[in-house]
Each structure stands twice: as structure tokens, then as C-alpha cells.
Design a protein that fits this description.
- This protein is mainly alpha-helical.
- 71% of the residues lie in helices and 0% in strands.
- The protein folds into 3 domains: 100 residues, Alpha Horseshoe (Serine Threonine Protein Phosphatase 5, Tetratricopeptide repeat), CATH 1.25.40; 69 residues; 91 residues.
- The chain is built from 13 helices and no strands.
- Helix 3 runs antiparallel to helix 4.
Length: 289
Amino acid sequence: MLLAGSPVSAQELVPALEFAERLFAEGDYYRAITEYKRVLFLLGDAPRGDWVRLRIGTAYLEGNRPEAAARVFASLAGRGSDEKMRGLAELGRARAWYRAGRHLQGMQMLERLHLSVENPLLLDSRNYLLGCAALRAGHLEVARPAFAAVRAQGALGARAGLVLERLGRAGRLPERSPLLAGLLSLVPGLGHFYLGQVEVGITALLWNGLFGWASYDSFRRGQRGAGGVLLVLEMFWYAGTVYGAVAGAHRFNRDARLNFLEELDAAAGLDVEVPPRAPPLELGLRGRF
């Protein structure tokens, strides 16, 4: 009977690991996780199992379960592994939060992560991912130096250079002032004209004018009850017009930023794979463990 932690031959481990890698490559991440766990069972507490744990976290991440991936990476980082493995685990954890949409948390985690210069690939991955998270979080003052810190001759250098070039050419993104949109809407419709919403502006102007005139005409005719009702309706419509213009300005700015990020993602890729897909040669599946 084979027990976890007992000596295992390469003939037993290699097929299981190769099958897990094949499933991973085919995008069958959950079956790959099952196979990786079988390899872990065969390895027991061997230090080489840390790489397999790293693959399990990555499979969870690629399978759109970033929270589960973050837990695996956090556990791996706390196992007391060597410096390179801890760096990979922490990078994986930060990437999990990034993929979960928690960009600010991922950015802060990467800012606290200090990697040895002896691992330039990991350092480049950290800097590139930090730049991506900072961009998504809206912190250009962090993103620019992070991308600039990626080695130009490294594997991520061309992508980082492209991001910096696009950021430089973009200058200031088109934006609309919510304050100005609100102030212009004191004259119904002008705030929407400022946002480029001509039809909405015309509608706002006509309805506000209609309710205002109807209320005035009712009071002029001595129909105070009808005039009061119409005045209340006009006040609600007027307030909605002002609020709609302010919200529209915020929406305009958000959409402009998101469109820019989508274009940048399509051109350079605002993500980085951590760790590399191929199993390291130092896993050492030779002989018996």
C-alpha cells in the first residue's frame, strides 16, 4: 500500500504530472487540479511539491476562481519555502486579487512585495503587474514608474515600453466636469448639451418648459391646487435634470477611462502570467524521492 510521504518512483509520478499538465493546457482546469492533488499525495511533504501547489493555485486562477487561488497562494507563501517560491506565491496571490477586480488591494500588496534582484524575471513580473493594477485602480503616479522599472531587454520589456508609449501619447483622456454639468443644468438641457446628449437636452428643455408654463398658467387662472401639483412635478423633473447631467458627466469619464484601458489591454495585455506554464527542470523527477 502506497502512503503519502513514502518513496515514489518517477515512473509513478511523471505520467500523473504530464496528464495534469495536458489538462491544464487544454483549459480543463478543474480536472487538472484533481490530478495535481494526486501528484501531491504521491509526493507527500517533499519540498518539490511546492511547485505542484503553485500549479493548483494557477489552475484555480485560470478557472476564474481567484478567491480560491488566493488562498492556495497564501498558504504556499506561509510554508517557509525558498525565496523564489515565496516570491512566485506572493505574485500569484496579488494577481488573484487583481483578476478578482480588487485592483487597489493587488496594487498595495505588490508595493509591499520586495523581490531579490537575483531573480530579474520575477522582479519584472512584479513591476509589470504592479503597473497593471495601478492603472486599473486609477493611480497613474504608481503605474508609470512601475512599467519604467521593467527591464527593456527582458521578456516583458517590449510590452512595458508599448504601455508607456500609449500612456505618453494619450495625454489627458477626454473628460467632462460634473460640477460644470450641474451648473449648466440650472438652465434645463444645457448640461446635457455639454455632454453631447443633444436629444436628452432637448427633451429636458421641453418638459421643464412645459411643466413650468402649465404651473404658471394654473396660478394665473386662480387654480392654485392644480398649480401646486404641477409645480411639485416640475421641481422633481428639474432636480432630475440636474442630477442626470452630473451623473452623465461621471459616466462619461468612467467610460473614457474604461475604453482606453480596453484598447491598451488589446495592444499590450494588462496581465502577466505567474508562474510560467512549463514545469521547471529542477522539479527533478528522476529516480526515487
